[in-house]
Amino acid sequence: MLDKAKLFAEKAHEGQQRKGTGKPYIVHPIQVAETLHQAGCSIEVVCAGYLHDVVEDTDYDITDIENEFGKAIADLVASHTEDKSKTWKERKQHTIDTVKTGSKNVKYLIIADKLDNLLSTEQELEKHGDKVWNNFNAGYEKQKWYYESVANHMYDGFLKGETPYFFQKYEKAVARVFG
Predict the structure, then answer these.
(1) Is residue 136 predicted with pLDDT exceeding 90?
(2) Across the chain, what does the average pLDDT equal?
(3) Distance between CA atoms of 64 and 44, rounded to whole angstroms?
(4) What are phi and psi of 17, to 5 degrees?
(5) 45 Cβ partners below 8 Å, 6+ apart?
(6) Does 156 participate in catalysis according to the annotation?
(7) pTM for the whole structure
(8) Which among 116, 142, 159, 162 would be 20 to 30 A from 86, CA to CA?
(9) Given this structure, which CATH class describes domain 2-178?
Protein backbone atom coordinates (compact mmCIF):
# COMPACT_ATOMS: atom_id res chain seq x y z
CA MET A 1 0.00 0.00 0.00
CA LEU A 2 2.85 2.41 0.80
CA ASP A 3 4.51 1.82 -2.58
CA LYS A 4 1.16 2.29 -4.32
CA ALA A 5 0.58 5.62 -2.52
CA LYS A 6 4.10 6.83 -3.34
CA LEU A 7 3.72 5.91 -7.03
CA PHE A 8 0.27 7.54 -7.18
CA ALA A 9 1.69 10.76 -5.68
CA GLU A 10 4.68 10.68 -8.05
CA LYS A 11 2.36 10.39 -11.05
CA ALA A 12 -0.02 13.07 -9.73
CA HIS A 13 2.75 15.59 -9.03
CA GLU A 14 4.80 14.79 -12.14
CA GLY A 15 6.35 17.94 -13.60
CA GLN A 16 5.46 20.12 -10.59
CA GLN A 17 8.13 22.08 -8.76
CA ARG A 18 8.36 23.20 -5.15
CA LYS A 19 7.58 26.90 -4.68
CA GLY A 20 10.71 29.00 -4.76
CA THR A 21 13.19 26.10 -4.86
CA GLY A 22 12.85 24.54 -8.30
CA LYS A 23 13.05 21.08 -6.69
CA PRO A 24 10.64 18.42 -7.91
CA TYR A 25 7.44 18.76 -5.86
CA ILE A 26 7.33 15.05 -5.01
CA VAL A 27 10.29 15.53 -2.65
CA HIS A 28 7.91 17.21 -0.18
CA PRO A 29 5.27 14.43 0.12
CA ILE A 30 8.04 11.83 0.31
CA GLN A 31 9.67 13.70 3.20
CA VAL A 32 6.33 14.09 4.98
CA ALA A 33 5.62 10.37 4.61
CA GLU A 34 9.14 9.51 5.81
CA THR A 35 8.69 11.66 8.94
CA LEU A 36 5.42 9.87 9.68
CA HIS A 37 6.95 6.45 9.01
CA GLN A 38 9.96 7.12 11.26
CA ALA A 39 7.60 8.20 14.04
CA GLY A 40 5.81 4.86 13.86
CA CYS A 41 2.52 6.15 12.46
CA SER A 42 0.05 3.72 10.90
CA ILE A 43 0.22 2.72 7.25
CA GLU A 44 -2.90 4.82 6.61
CA VAL A 45 -1.25 7.95 8.02
CA VAL A 46 1.97 7.36 6.07
CA CYS A 47 -0.03 6.83 2.86
CA ALA A 48 -1.89 10.08 3.59
CA GLY A 49 1.54 11.72 3.93
CA TYR A 50 2.36 10.75 0.35
CA LEU A 51 -1.08 11.79 -0.87
CA HIS A 52 -1.80 14.88 1.26
CA ASP A 53 -1.41 17.45 -1.55
CA VAL A 54 -2.81 15.41 -4.44
CA VAL A 55 -6.38 16.74 -4.23
CA GLU A 56 -5.26 20.29 -3.49
CA ASP A 57 -2.62 20.59 -6.22
CA THR A 58 -3.51 18.18 -9.04
CA ASP A 59 -6.47 17.13 -11.19
CA TYR A 60 -7.34 14.21 -8.90
CA ASP A 61 -10.21 14.55 -6.43
CA ILE A 62 -11.01 12.94 -3.10
CA THR A 63 -13.13 10.27 -4.82
CA ASP A 64 -10.04 9.14 -6.74
CA ILE A 65 -8.15 8.79 -3.45
CA GLU A 66 -11.01 6.85 -1.85
CA ASN A 67 -11.37 4.53 -4.85
CA GLU A 68 -7.66 3.73 -4.84
CA PHE A 69 -6.87 3.73 -1.12
CA GLY A 70 -10.12 3.45 0.85
CA LYS A 71 -12.17 5.70 3.07
CA ALA A 72 -9.75 5.94 6.02
CA ILE A 73 -6.91 7.34 3.90
CA ALA A 74 -9.28 9.54 1.89
CA ASP A 75 -10.69 10.98 5.12
CA LEU A 76 -7.17 11.84 6.34
CA VAL A 77 -6.33 13.51 3.03
CA ALA A 78 -9.65 15.37 3.00
CA SER A 79 -9.09 16.65 6.55
CA HIS A 80 -5.93 18.39 5.39
CA THR A 81 -7.02 19.56 1.94
CA GLU A 82 -7.51 23.31 1.65
CA ASP A 83 -10.52 24.76 -0.13
CA LYS A 84 -8.83 26.99 -2.72
CA SER A 85 -12.04 29.00 -3.20
CA LYS A 86 -11.47 30.54 0.24
CA THR A 87 -9.07 33.33 1.14
CA TRP A 88 -5.58 32.56 2.42
CA LYS A 89 -6.58 33.56 5.96
CA GLU A 90 -9.76 31.43 5.88
CA ARG A 91 -7.79 28.41 4.65
CA LYS A 92 -5.12 28.81 7.30
CA GLN A 93 -7.67 29.40 10.07
CA HIS A 94 -9.37 26.15 9.02
CA THR A 95 -6.05 24.32 9.40
CA ILE A 96 -5.48 25.89 12.83
CA ASP A 97 -9.00 24.87 13.88
CA THR A 98 -8.35 21.34 12.60
CA VAL A 99 -5.16 21.17 14.66
CA LYS A 100 -7.14 22.27 17.73
CA THR A 101 -9.88 19.67 17.38
CA GLY A 102 -8.67 16.99 14.95
CA SER A 103 -7.84 13.39 15.72
CA LYS A 104 -4.28 12.46 16.63
CA ASN A 105 -3.74 10.99 13.15
CA VAL A 106 -4.91 14.21 11.51
CA LYS A 107 -2.58 16.20 13.76
CA TYR A 108 0.33 13.91 12.90
CA LEU A 109 -0.28 14.53 9.20
CA ILE A 110 -0.63 18.30 9.54
CA ILE A 111 2.42 18.77 11.77
CA ALA A 112 4.63 16.56 9.57
CA ASP A 113 3.54 18.62 6.55
CA LYS A 114 4.06 21.98 8.26
CA LEU A 115 7.43 20.84 9.61
CA ASP A 116 8.68 19.99 6.14
CA ASN A 117 7.33 23.27 4.75
CA LEU A 118 9.06 25.21 7.50
CA LEU A 119 12.39 23.37 7.15
CA SER A 120 12.32 24.06 3.40
CA THR A 121 11.62 27.74 4.07
CA GLU A 122 14.44 27.83 6.60
CA GLN A 123 16.88 26.43 4.01
CA GLU A 124 15.76 29.00 1.46
CA LEU A 125 16.13 31.81 4.02
CA GLU A 126 19.73 30.73 4.62
CA LYS A 127 20.42 30.85 0.87
CA HIS A 128 18.42 33.89 -0.20
CA GLY A 129 17.51 35.91 2.88
CA ASP A 130 14.23 37.67 3.52
CA LYS A 131 13.28 37.93 -0.16
CA VAL A 132 12.06 34.33 0.28
CA TRP A 133 8.89 35.72 1.86
CA ASN A 134 7.97 37.14 -1.56
CA ASN A 135 7.40 33.56 -2.79
CA PHE A 136 4.34 33.22 -0.55
CA ASN A 137 0.76 34.44 -0.86
CA ALA A 138 1.24 36.02 2.56
CA GLY A 139 4.44 37.58 3.87
CA TYR A 140 6.47 37.13 7.02
CA GLU A 141 3.96 38.48 9.57
CA LYS A 142 1.08 36.35 8.32
CA GLN A 143 3.29 33.27 8.01
CA LYS A 144 4.49 33.87 11.57
CA TRP A 145 0.88 34.09 12.80
CA TYR A 146 0.01 30.87 11.00
CA TYR A 147 2.97 28.72 12.05
CA GLU A 148 2.89 29.97 15.65
CA SER A 149 -0.87 29.36 15.87
CA VAL A 150 -0.38 25.78 14.70
CA ALA A 151 2.38 25.34 17.30
CA ASN A 152 0.18 26.82 20.02
CA HIS A 153 -2.53 24.20 19.44
CA MET A 154 -0.70 21.09 18.26
CA TYR A 155 -0.51 19.59 21.75
CA ASP A 156 -4.26 20.01 22.40
CA GLY A 157 -5.74 16.61 23.21
CA PHE A 158 -2.42 14.91 23.94
CA LEU A 159 -1.08 13.85 27.31
CA LYS A 160 2.38 15.06 28.27
CA GLY A 161 5.03 13.00 26.48
CA GLU A 162 2.49 11.44 24.11
CA THR A 163 3.46 13.32 20.94
CA PRO A 164 6.03 12.05 18.44
CA TYR A 165 9.50 13.62 18.27
CA PHE A 166 8.67 15.73 15.23
CA PHE A 167 6.23 17.91 17.21
CA GLN A 168 9.17 19.21 19.24
CA LYS A 169 11.20 19.54 16.05
CA TYR A 170 8.40 21.68 14.58
CA GLU A 171 8.24 23.83 17.72
CA LYS A 172 12.01 24.47 17.52
CA ALA A 173 11.83 25.29 13.80
CA VAL A 174 9.06 27.85 14.46
CA ALA A 175 11.26 29.47 17.13
CA ARG A 176 14.28 29.58 14.80
CA VAL A 177 12.43 31.01 11.79
CA PHE A 178 10.07 33.38 13.58
CA GLY A 179 11.60 33.89 17.04
Answers:
(1) no
(2) 95
(3) 16
(4) -120, 150
(5) 36, 76, 105, 108, 109
(6) no
(7) 0.96
(8) 116
(9) mainly alpha
Q: Which of 57, 64, 68, 82 is catalytic?
A: 57
Q: How many Cβ atoms are within 10 Å of 141's Cβ, its own excluded? A: 10
How many beta carbons lie within 10 A of that of residue 96, not counting itself?
A: 19
> Does 124 participate in catalysis according to the annotation?
no
The answer to whether 133 touches 143, Cβ cutoff 8 Å, is yes
> Which tens digits make up the pLDDT trace of 88-133?
999 999 999 999 999 999 999 999 999 999 999 999 999 999 999 9
Q: Yes or no: say if 73 and 31 are a contact pair by the CB < 8 Å rule.
A: no
CA dihedral 129, 131, 133, 134 (to 10 degrees): -160
Output the pLDDT for position 78: 97
The answer on pLDDT for 19 being more than 80 is no
Q: At 24, phi and psi to the nearest 5? A: -55, 135
**Predicted pLDDT at 63:** 98
Residue spans of the domains in the chain: they are: 2-178
The sign of the CA dihedral 126, 169, 1, 81 is negative
